[in-house]
Specification:
The chain is α/β, with parallel strands linked by helices. The chain has a 4-stranded mixed sheet, sandwiched between helices. Helix 1 links the parallel strand 1 and strand 2. Helix 1 crosses helix 4.
């Protein structure tokens, strides 16, 4: 288990141990220290409320990241993921739910590493890194039934 990592999920099928393993792999990949990291899998309505209240965005999204760190290689932040949006994404992109959750965790971690997706150029760079890491660390982030 990764020290200073808390994983919360409203979806009981999310494999918290696999999330810890993925974060451990990313921690090694980027030579990171984690002072505090919270990853929460919540419903779409809650994520929409957070998007409106804190980011002034009135639309649904699949992941929101809050970065509190003052140092690049020291993670202090929150990743909030809509498990409902993840299920829709998985269906739309024809991938498993577990693989989509893995991609969203990686996407959130990239934001904590100061990757951005606000313009086309930075979005392309971030997407390439996301795809590479998703292939490399293909964790199934749901419980096997």
């Amino acid at each position: 288990m990764v020290k200073n990592l808390q994983v919360y999920s409203q979806d009981s099928s999310v494999n918290k141990r696999a999330v810890h393993k993925l974060i451990s792999s990313l921690k090694s990949e980027f030579n990171l220290a984690i002072s505090s990291l919270s990853i929460s899998f919540i419903n779409s309505e809650e994520l929409l409320d957070i998007n409106k209240e804190y980011l002034n965005h009135d639309y649904e999204t699949d992941v929101i990241t809050f970065n509190y760190s003052k140092k690049l290689k020291e993670i202090d932040g929150e990743i909030l993921i809509s498990y409902e949006e993840a299920k829709r994404n998985a269906k739309n992109f024809k991938v498993t739910y577990g693989k989509e959750l893995c991609r969203l965790v990686i996407h959130g971690m990239l934001h904590l590493l100061n990757f951005d997706d606000k313009d086309q150029k930075s979005k392309k760079i971030m997407k390439q890194a996301e795809n590479k890491l998703t292939l490399k660390y293909n964790f199934a982030l749901f419980a096997s039934k």
